Amino acid sequence: MKSFNQINIQSLRLFVAVLEQGNFSEVARREAMSPSTVSRVIAQLEQALQTQLLYRNTRAVSPTESGKLLAEHARQVLAQLDLAEQDLQEQSSEPGGLVRINAPVVFGQRHIAPWLPELNTRFPRLNIELMQTDDFIDPLQDSVDLLIRIGVMADSTLQARTLGHQNFRLAASPTYLARAGIPATPDDLSNHSCLVFKGFAGSQRWYFRHPEKEWRSWNLRGALTSNNAETLTQAAIGGMGLVVFPTWLIGDALRAGTLVSVLPEYQVSTSPEPQTISALYPNARRASVKVRVVIDYLVEKFGLPAYWE
C-alpha cells in the first residue's frame, strides 16, 4: 500500500528540482550534496510510494506518468508552504519600502491624496510615490506597483481588486434649471446645454434607461466641451449647463445643493457596461505585503458603499 507518511518536504523539493534540472548532478551541486545522496532520496521516495517516478539514463532523467502526477501536486504543496512562510515572515515585520501608485488626476486629488497622511502615520516605513495622469499607463513598462483605474474593466494580465462601483448622475445647478427648465425625458436634452467631456476616445456619449430596460445613447452638445472633468463641473455649478459625472466627482456638490440631480427616475452612464474603480497590480502570484496594505487601507477608507455615494 502506498504510504505518504514516509515522505518529507525536502524529498519533494529535491524531486521537483531533479525534474527541472534533468539530472542529479546539478541538483547535488546546488544543494551541496553528493549525486548519490540525491539519487538515494529519490529511490526512497519511489519505495515509499511503491511506484517508479523517473526514467534514468547516463545523460539525463525524465518523469514517468506517475512522476508527472506527483510533480504536479508537489509543486502546489510547495507553493502553499512558501506562501505560508512568507505570511509568517511578513506578520512579524512592519511593511516598508517604496510603493509607486498611479491614479487619474481628479480622483487622486479627491480620494487618494487626502488619506495619505493617515496612511503614513499607520505605516511610517512606507514611502509613497503618487503619480497622477489620465493617460494610459503600462505598469510593467512604467514601473508602477499599484494602478488605480476607473471605467469598464477589460481583460488584462494584471490582478485587480474592486474598490468601488462608478455610479453616474445627470446634474445641473438650480440657477440653470430655473432659467432653462427641467427636462422631463432624455429626449428633452436636445433643447438644453449639455457640457460634455472629450477625451482621447472622443466625446462622451450619454446613456439612459429605465431600470431593467435597455440602454439608449444620446450624442449631445452644449456651450462647453473639455477634456478636464473639474472644469466641466465648475461650469455646471456656475449655471452653464448639464453634466453627466460619477458620484465620486460631483457627490459633494449634490449634497451641498450647488448641483441638483436631474431625471432621477432614469439610470445614467457613459457606457452600457458596468464601470468600476479598481486597484490593479502586476500578475504575480500575489501582491507584495506593502502593496496589499495600501489596497486594504483604501478599501477600509472608501467603505461599502463608498463614502461619496
UniProtKB/TrEMBL annotation:
Transmembrane stretches, start-end: none
Keyword Transmembrane helix carried by entry: no
InterPro entries assigned to the protein according to its UniProt record, in alphabetical order: LysR-type_TF_proteobact-type, LysR_HTH_N, LysR_subst-bd, WH-like_DNA-bd_sf, WH_DNA-bd_sf
Family annotation (SUPFAM superfamilies): Periplasmic binding protein-like II, Winged helix' DNA-binding domain
Coiled coil region boundaries: none
Family according to the record: Belongs to the LysR transcriptional regulatory family.
Protein name from the UniProt record: LysR family transcriptional regulator
